[in-house]
Amino acid sequence: MKFISALIITFVTLFSTISLVSAHSSMLYPPVRGHPKNPNAAVQDFACIITPLNGGGGCDPKPFPCGGYPMDKKIVTTFQAGQIIDVKFFNPNFQNIKTANPNNDQARHNGGLCEFALSYDGGKTYTVIATYHKTCPDIFFDNWKVKIPDNAPSCDNPGKCIFSWSWINAVGNREFYQNCADIKLVGNSTEPLPIIDITRANLPPLFKNIITPEGDPKNTGNAKGSGPLAEDVKANLALTIGPDSSKPGSDKGSNPKNKGSKGSKSKPSKSKPSPNNPNSNNGSNSPDTTRKSNSSPVTTPEQDSSPVPTPETNRSPANTPNQGSNNSLDGASCSTNGAMTCVNAGSTSEFATCDNGKQVIRQCPGVLVCQQSTPTTIACNFSKTR
Ligand SMILES: [Cu+2]
């Protein structure tokens, strides 16, 4: 990676040179480390800020996390817990969106999977707080809404508090993109957010697994697309994370109801591959690899700390997160339209929704596991805390 901020070439000049070819997009707001549009960036990487971590287009590979760019000279972006942010993207070929031709090439690779996440440790661990499927990114829309969780604790540790955007494209080379914004967070909670790892893929040898997310149904290319899917916006704004209403002992035993019997941190026994160690998660077994993009508004508005009706008993430790729909519920007939049933309450992400007489299997996003809230509703909840 080479930083050429010292060159005399001006931002505009250089980017108009680049604009002869197709150029990827980057996050624009919140302002990104290493970005020419970020006045507080410690370096400004005119040439390679928009390339994936894989490198390419004359750019060397960049390290994970955050492309290796140093933290900003000055951190000026402050978000409050509960705040809703409109994320914006940037593409050097489109200096003026208002007059830009929507059919021009923004190298969006037909969109794909965008995840927005907070990190409190400089990008080692993450809590995904918003996900956009199929249509993201797209510079022609400036309302990619992301909600900072109500229970996000404060963070004022320069270099450690990060708002991350990662993108896995739908079409083209399998690549992993990430931009990081240095931020400060102001919250009330004293409890850390649970880890909800970003999808780590398409960056071998670090993230070995290769995935191809679904793309924008509106077009197959690089022109202006459909914009944020309504169901994604809804889910992102409704998403609540972690034990919330019940913070008493904060730790395990005290409020098992929020975690099912998952024994969220009985580390000794059931430790699964452990997303706790970011390095161990080279993606090969990331739960995200099986995530389907049809994750509609699954994320039910918080598990209202309701009486999780003894979900357990069927949590067989041997029962590893099974894939997609190879289970007996899939396609089974059902009678209560809209009723949702966890496939393995408390232990895997899948749940069945009765859709016009037939069970359709879906999955909680990320590493969330399904918990049965009432006989006909479920909540996607977390089992680990940072
Ligand atoms: Cu590309």
Automatic annotation (TrEMBL):
Pfam families per the UniProt record, alphabetical: CBM_19
Name of this protein: Lytic polysaccharide monooxygenase/CBM Family 19 protein
Any single GO BP term: chitin catabolic process
InterPro entries (UniProt xref): CBM19
Record organism: Gigaspora rosea
Transmembrane segments: none
Signal sequence bounds: 1-23
Compositionally biased intervals (Basic residues): 259-270
Listed Polar residues bias regions: 292-332
Boundaries of every Carbohydrate-binding module family domain copy: 330-374
PANTHER family cross-referenced by the UniProt entry: PROTEIN, PUTATIVE (AFU_ORTHOLOGUE AFUA_6G10930)-RELATED (PTHR36182:SF1)
Keyword field: Monooxygenase, Oxidoreductase, Signal
Region Disordered, annotated ranges: 209-332
A GO molecular function held by the record: chitin binding
Entry keyword Signal: yes
Biased composition (Low complexity): 271-287
Domain of life of the organism encoding this protein: Eukaryota
